[in-house]
Design a protein that fits this description.
The protein has two domains: 36 residues, no CATH class; 136 residues, GTP Cyclohydrolase I, domain 2 (2-Layer Sandwich). 41% of the residues lie in helices and 26% in strands. It is built from nine helices and seven strands, in the order H-H-H-E-E-E-E-H-E-H-E-H-E-H-H-H. The strands form two sheets. The chain has a five-stranded mixed beta sheet, sandwiched between helices. Strands 1-4 form a two-stranded antiparallel sheet. The longest helix is centred in the middle third of the chain and has 16 residues. It is elongated. The N and C termini lie far apart (39 Å). The chain binds guanosine-5'-triphosphate (GTP) and zinc ion (ZN). The site of zinc ion has 6 residues, from loops. Zinc ion binds next to loops. Belongs to the GTP cyclohydrolase I family.
Length: 187
């Protein structure tokens, strides 16, 4: 990858041997590997030690305002914002930290926001088998703000509702009202 980055710098009209760029191919390569590290995450290993039996919890669990950073697959530019994830337990709960970890595992790839949203929901549904899962992501796409159509404040919201969140309007309504005071709206 380092050689490719060096070639890219040349194509851009830069001098890869100048002081500031000398280690750039190495840095970019490390950085890109981190930003796409989600391809190598084994989701089952990630969550399996943190699934707990709990017959008493049957109310909605929500983790909201999870920072997410991803790369759009069309331009390889960042899109970033907040993810809100909820589930309705059915005899099992998941370690809370695993929810942001699942968000990271699917964010750190080349993505479109819609697919990222469904992958997170499908993953939680598959490993936890709850009565329902809801995921909402609000994000700003740099490919729409620093280039292209150049709109600075246009957030994109996507959602994926499974189980009760899809079939039961009051469950969906409760989730949406609980995330309505989310960080993005407060700032
Ligand atoms: N649906 C969806 N589209 C996205 C996402 N990220 C970027 N895009 C869009 O992907 C499209 C790619 O369109 P093209 O016309 O092939 O690319 P382009 O000429 O660079 O388009 P502009 O961005 O309009 O300049 C653009 O409309 C982007 O806004 C995403 O997460 N979801
Ligand atoms: Zn893009």
């Amino acid at each position: 990858m380092k050689e490719l980055i060096e070639k890219l710098l040349l194509e851009l009209g830069e001098d890869p041997s100048r002081e500031g760029l000398k280690n750039t191919p190495e840095r970019v390569s490390r950085s890109l590997k981190f930003l796409t590290g989600g391809y190598w995450v084994n989701i089952d290993e990630l969550v399996n030690d943190a699934l707990f039996t709990d017959a008493n919890t049957d109310e909605m669990v929500i983790v909201k305002d999870i920072d997410m950073f991803s790369l759009c697959e069309h331009h390889m530019l960042p899109f970033f914002g907040k993810a809100h994830v909820a589930y309705l337990p059915d005899g099992k709960i998941i370690g809370l930290s695993k929810i942001p970890r699942v968000v990271d595992a699917f964010s750190r790839r080349l993505q479109v926001q819609e697919r990222l949203t469904t992958q997170i929901a499908d993953c939680i549904q598959r490993v936890l088998k709850p009565k329902g899962v809801a995921v909402v992501i609000e994000a700003l796409h740099l490919c729409m703000s620093m280039r292209g159509v150049e709109k600075q404040n246009s957030y994109t919201t996507t959602s994926s509702m499974l189980g009760y969140f899809k079939t039961n309007p009051s469950t969906r309504g409760e989730f949406l009202s609980l995330i309505n005071g989310s960080q993005r709206y407060r700032t």
